[in-house]
Amino acid sequence: MLDVKFIRENKELVEKSAKEKGYAVDISELIALDDTRKAELVKVEELRKKRNEIAAKMKGGKPDAAQIEAGKAVKAELAEREEVLAQAETKLKAAIALVPNIILSDVPLGDEDCSVEVRKWGEPHETGVDHLDYAVSRDWVDFERGAKVAGAKFYYLKNELALLENALLQYALKKVLEHGFTFVTVPDMVSSRVLEGCGFNPRTSDQSDEYFIEGEDLAMIATAEMPLTGYHMDEIIDEDKLPLLYSGYSACFRKEAGTYGKYTRGLFRVHQFNKLEMYVFCLPEQSEEIHEKILAVEEEIWQELGIPYHVINIAAGDLGAPAAKKYDIEYWSPVNKKYQEITSCSNCTDFQARAVNARVRRKDGTVECMHTLNGTAVSLARAMVAMIENYAKEGGKMYIPEPLRPYLNNKEEI
User: Fold this and answer.
1) Which residue of 99, 113, 210, 351 has the smallest Cβ count within 10 Å?
2) 176 Rama sector, left if φ>0, alpha if ψ -120 to 50, beta otherwise
3) Quick one: pLDDT band at residue 240, thresholds 50, 70, 90?
């Protein structure tokens, strides 16, 4: 979330940035709500002062009837005004939650078609194997039984494909550890406060992507980014301990709402998959450099696996609420003859940290919000799609890149 003081002082910038992202927000109404909150706070503070003055006069002796009545009257009025203040604060918080993060200056403007290619790597293959047909023919995946037990777009992985998933995880984990990340496993559910703190506000009501637990203040996570965002909630970290680099492994659960018209075949877009995520808490002045570092780790993984890709700087109209800037890596799909998203990494600046109250104490004693960043080390379902499309042979075996062989009994093919 943005700081209300920043919103007041940068009204035009906030409105312009929200519009570029495709969010309809009324900053004038938000400021009016803040004015109401401030006015109610003044009234509450005056009544609290009056209550304390009456209490001080009543100390050390027997209060008279007038003092008792005055005390009761102030107490009743204070309770009423505190309730009004609480309602004003709730309305303001709800309004602020709808305001997306400010975009950085080098983010392209426009919708997703306006995203800018940063660079390409590798020579695109001209022909490839459909991953679903190939995996089904080899008894590697079972969507029918997945649908039987959980519904459409759930699945079982079997045999070599399940082993390939494990190999990809082990390889990616080794890679992030080499780059100084601390490996953590995370809860597969988070509270509403953490969910809201992540800032995944859909542009429309029919785009909500989370599975909620009925009767509980819990939702299934869509990414390990969610519980990692809450890891240092309500904490103050000393400046010399930053940056803090974490890599979280988890299952990810998504309704995939609002994906009409997007590529959904087989494992590419499913309701549950596993992912290894990178997440960083850092000083504000470090975040742009660390964003490039996370991207470099992602590129290193796909270069070592030999999968052709390009990097794009995502346009404002395709950015989510929390991101100030985002890179996507899209692998070359020889089946669909186009680049398709396989990883992303975002600089969320202080947007998430402010919402979960994750702060840094500077050496001079001042306290401010940290910056947070996230990036995909490997999203396993899509990674397997890319591997099959680029390395499987129609009617034959699938080539295994050298970095994965130690985790597959040194097999060159499966």
Assistant:
1) 113
2) alpha
3) very high
